[in-house]
Amino acid sequence: MAKDFPFPVVNDPNDLGTLQMWDRDVYADLLACREGRMSGAAFDAKYRYTAAIMALDMTGFTRSSMRQGDLASLLRIVDVHRVCLPVFREFRTAQVRAFADDLSATFDDPGRALACAFELHRRVGAYNALLPPGGNPAQVCIGLGYGGVYRLGPDRAMGKEMNQASKLGEDIAQGGETLVTEGFRAAVATVPGCRFTPRTHEEAKFPYFQAFCDE
Questions:
Q1: 56-91 per-position pLDDT tens digit
Q2: Candidate from 18-32, 37-51, 134-148 with smallest mean pLDDT
Q3: pLDDT tens-digit readout, 108-133
Q4: Is 26's pLDDT higher than 90?
Q5: How many CA atoms lie within 13 A of 8 on its CB side?
Q6: For the chain, which end, N or C, has fewer CB atoms within 10 Å of the first or last residue's CB respectively?
Q7: Measured between alpha carbons, how far is 186 from 208 in angstroms, rounded to an integer?
């Protein structure tokens, strides 16, 4: 920031930490990078790692809220959480976090992330099939990325692959779809029984693919 900026700024890591995006130590290191006291290489060595990223969104909550009320929407979220959490545990997810009607997860292995995505779709579909007529079913939309990210923030993954996976899962994928970034597709290109079809969308300024897995 320019030294002649005429307005107050916060430079206390403890104060910045009250925003609850990063903790005090992360803010301190970022300020050190900003001020030239810490190199980018040193910051990367401390925080950067390689992970598979999943961004999962749930469909139809705005319509559900308008038609059946807020409580019905919350119950749909709970139902999806009840179905999905055992799947994440079975596939040894490194971390999973819920926010509103989204779930984000990280995996050490992209192949396991892909298998988890297909199983999530299968379990949610099986649950919906048991609902009575008018039972307010939900589907999930999934975006997957793989590559270098920063182990920062509540999702423990910040960077291009997280941004792209989130765009795919939250904004572009339809219910039941799994969309993947170019980096993710390259990492799982040899997984048997899986194929990837290029897709385009006006909101995506990057290559991405829809994933299919033969039963």
A1: 999 866 666 667 778 888 888 899 999 999 999 999
A2: 134-148
A3: 999 999 999 999 999 999 998 888 87
A4: yes
A5: 2
A6: C
A7: 11
The strand order across the sheet containing 178-181 reads: 95-99, 102-107, 48-58, 140-150, 178-181, 208-213, 194-199
Closest CA to 140 of 106, 99, 182, 169: 169
d(CA 201, CA 121): 22
Domains of the chain: residue spans and CATH:
49-213 (3.30.70.1230)
Whether the CB-CB separation of 145 and 188 falls below 8 Å is answered with no
Quick one: three-class SS letters along the chain? CCCCCCCCCCCCHHHHHCCCCCCHHHHHHHHHHHCCCCCHHHHHHHHEEEEEEEEEEECCHHHHHHHHCHHHHHHHHHHHHHHHHHHHHHCCCCEEEEECCEEEEEECCHHHHHHHHHHHHHHHHHHHHCCCCCCCCCCEEEEEEEEEEECCCCCCCECHHHHHHHHHHHHHCCCCCEEEEHHHHHHCCCCCCEEEEEECCCCCCCCEEEEEECC
pTM of the entire structure? 0.92
Pairing outcome for strands 178-181 and 102-107: unpaired
Q: Return the exposure string of 81-118: e unless at least 16 CB atoms fall within 10 Å of the residue's CB, then b.
A: eebbeebbeebebbebeeeebbbbbbbebbebbbbbbb
Contact criterion met (CB below 8 Å) for 115 and 22? no
